[in-house]
Structure to design on (459 residues):
């Protein structure tokens, strides 16, 4: 009897201990689940082995890791063990981070002149940021690029949760890549990232103060033409005046009759304001709002961004890659079409280690579809910039001076509203002896810069 009793007690203790171990595993599971990364040495369309280190993979986020976020990681070509680590978030929401790899700051580009209808070919970009930095290009939120959900319900996401998913991704990625945990860390992004990225920085900062592991060596962040606050559209009119698209007499009439309000949710109080806005709509009908000097190519659709381009919500031509006009050869949309053809090739997906059957069709930007599954609850990030500056984090905010969608005037205005003292006043910055833009530095380690003749979103 004694022996039996001892046996029963031992079994009970064993089950109790097992339960505690399992409970502990569940509690720390978000940081133990390793990223599934694979090295990519060759890419279809690129001649020979890649001259840089490329890793792709997935990290599961959410309570049951039901959201599988895909990423591209490229090591610095200089000193990866010492160079900064950047997590890059492409805007949208719903735009693939592959935009960053081939159109923005990454080491690859498409050779348009050699395209003959077969698989697009790739070349090397001489001025890639990966020359001096390690960069993670993250496909987020779920249902963006090659990221996918394991359940039908998991495809839905709220913006505040999307921020948490980015933070969870970063922690898990660093657990799997501990050699980068001490590198200086920066967050970077453009367009809609201007809303969620500052909130992610706040989560990281709060995590540091709470002692969350792994400890992130956060230094700052950078944003290009960032969507920041709801009144952005009100600054488009001064931009149009400066670009010669709207004449001065019409501009003065707009100021008088619309009282500076041009947003889509603004209901004009007089007929003259409505008439003026209709004239502006006509003037913008064939204007590329992301770079007013570029041709407008694609199909006639409603703009997919949270702030549509047409002032009164009318349908207008936009940068959708459903059709390419011969007049658009060499344009940005033409280059975008090459990524659609390339990324949907089975050979490419195999080389990138994409999980078979998880994505029916890769889209450079899935903004229309994501509107049905993505919930916007906040559209103002100014307060986060104040918090970050007060904690000494560096920030670079830059604007392409030909981007009408998020004009540099609106960015300059919200930065001015922070009331930081000016350390280095408005001046030129140059490349090879030529003016490349203008810049101003503020106290609290914030810098604003324009990029001459450029757009910065998906360039």
């Amino acid at each position: 009897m004694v022996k039996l009793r001892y046996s029963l007690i031992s079994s009970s203790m064993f089950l109790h201990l097992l339960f505690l171990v399992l409970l502990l595993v569940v509690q720390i599971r978000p940081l133990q689940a390793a990223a599934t990364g694979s090295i990519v040495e060759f890419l279809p369309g690129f001649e020979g082995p890649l001259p840089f280190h490329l890793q792709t993979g997935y990290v599961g986020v959410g309570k049951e890791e039901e959201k599988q976020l895909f990423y591209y990681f490229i090591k610095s070509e200089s000193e990866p063990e010492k160079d900064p680590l950047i997590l890059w978030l492409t805007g949208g929401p719903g735009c693939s981070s592959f935009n960053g790899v081939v159109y923005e700051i990454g080491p690859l580009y498409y050779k348009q002149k050699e395209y003959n209808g077969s698989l697009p070919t790739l070349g090397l970009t001489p001025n890639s940021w990966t020359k001096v930095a390690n960069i993670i290009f993250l496909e987020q939120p779920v249902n963006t690029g090659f990221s996918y959900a394991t359940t039908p319900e998991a495809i839905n996401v709220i913006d505040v949760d999307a921020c948490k998913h980015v933070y969870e991704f970063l922690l898990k990625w660093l657990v799997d890549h501990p050699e980068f945990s001490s590198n200086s860390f920066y967050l970077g992004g453009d367009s809609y990232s201007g809303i969620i990225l500052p909130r992610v920085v706040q989560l990281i900062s709060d995590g540091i103060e709470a002692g969350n592991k792994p400890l992130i060596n956060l230094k700052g962040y950078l944003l290009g033409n960032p969507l920041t606050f709801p009144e952005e559209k009100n600054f488009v009119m001064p931009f149009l005046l400066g670009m010669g698209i709207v004449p001065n007499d019409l501009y003065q009439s707009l100021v008088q009759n619309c009282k500076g309000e041009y947003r889509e949710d603004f209901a004009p109080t007089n007929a003259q304001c409505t008439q003026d806005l209709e004239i502006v709509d006509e003037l913008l009908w064939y204007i590329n709002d992301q770079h007013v000097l570029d041709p407008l190519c694609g199909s006639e659709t409603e703009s997919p961004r949270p702030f549509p381009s047409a002032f009164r919500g009318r349908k207008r031509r936009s940068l959708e890659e459903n059709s390419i006009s011969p007049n658009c050869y060499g344009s940005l949309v033409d280059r975008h079409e090459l990524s659609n053809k390339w990324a949907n090739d089975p050979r490419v997906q195999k080389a990138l280690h994409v999980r078979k059957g998880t994505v029916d069709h890769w889209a450079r930007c899935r903004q229309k579809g994501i509107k049905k599954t993505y919930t916007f609850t906040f559209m103002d990030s100014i307060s986060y910039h104040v918090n970050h500056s007060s904690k000494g984090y560096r920030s670079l905010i830059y604007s392409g001076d030909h981007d009408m969608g998020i004009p540099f005037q609106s960015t300059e205005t919200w930065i001015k509203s922070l009331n930081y003292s000016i350390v280095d006043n408005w001046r030129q910055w140059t490349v090879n002896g030529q003016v490349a833009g203008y810049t101003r530095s503020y106290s609290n380690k914030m810098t604003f810069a324009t990029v001459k003749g450029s757009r910065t979103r998906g360039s």
In short: The chain has a mean pLDDT of 85. DSSP finds twelve helices and 18 strands in the chain. Residues 234-335 form one domain.
